[in-house]
Amino acid sequence: MGIYLPIAELSVNMFVLLGMGAAVGFLSGLFGVGGGFLITPLLIFYNIPPAIAVATGANQVIASSVSGALVHFKRRTLDIKLGTLLVIGGLIGALIGIYVFSWLRDLGQLDLIVSILYVFFLGTVGGLMLVESWKTLRRNKSGAAPVRKSGHHNWIHRLPFKMRFRASMIYVSIIPVLGIGFFIGLLSSVMGVGGGFIMVPALIYILRVPTNVVVGTSLFQITFVTAFTTVLQATTNQSVDIVLAFLLMVGGVIGAQYGARAGQKLRGEQLRLLLALMVLAVALRLGYDLFIKPDNIFTISIADL
């Protein structure tokens, strides 16, 4: 069934968009990621203009993140204190990111920069997670105990302004927590992602937060930062398509509920391995598009006067 998108200015199949939203919502609940790293490229592949895909993709992340976060809140696998600090850093990063987004759009380089950023971050994070999770699975299969060095803490744990996060069972400085939140907020504005594909490994490997708590806490932060980003995108760049956002949100809410339930049946290293494979698949697809010859060598656009 065809439906017209007023801001994107094109007609699309409504059921395709609902299916996209449901698939991304399922992944959101399963892995603790907002799903923006997947929905934005999918929309671009579906010929949605990149600026609209980035802004509206961030909006879709809200629905699936809220739905998944509520499930984890009920199960007490959400660290509100840690999530609040991540939100504070994320809001500051999102505010700065909006101005970077507008600047790149005015230069006419937004499409290229977004694609390059996706390939770089997805490829790097996905590769590191794949290696680590594969090693963990092999070690568990062989029955060998993990090797732990004395003085396990790194330089991050020696920073000042430490705070205890009881739900996560960690005692760390708020500086890296705010820094991670700031970086995720910046990416949310520029790339239209929730940032979970970076936040999840950052919380696990840098702050040593347990995997079962990471998922819910990540969704909590993503909810507030992407909501703030969507409002800024709508008021500053007028690039949020409400019809497109609604269809994606409906599918996302449904999919997130099933994803959260499925995630409870998998171990932490299995979740990380699956997420790594998904991230690398998207990176390879976007990287391929950067090097193939386009159908139209030249395009003509009329800038606002």
Automatic annotation (TrEMBL):
InterPro entries documented for this protein: TM_pro_TauE-like, TSUP/Inactive_protease-like
Entry keyword set: Cell membrane, Membrane, Transmembrane, Transmembrane helix
Transmembrane intervals: 12-45, 85-104, 110-131, 165-184, 190-207, 214-236, 242-259, 271-288
Membrane-related topology note: Multi-pass membrane protein
Localization annotation: Cell membrane; Membrane
Gene Ontology CC, one term: plasma membrane
Protein family: Belongs to the 4-toluene sulfonate uptake permease (TSUP) (TC 2.A.102) family.
Protein name: Probable membrane transporter protein
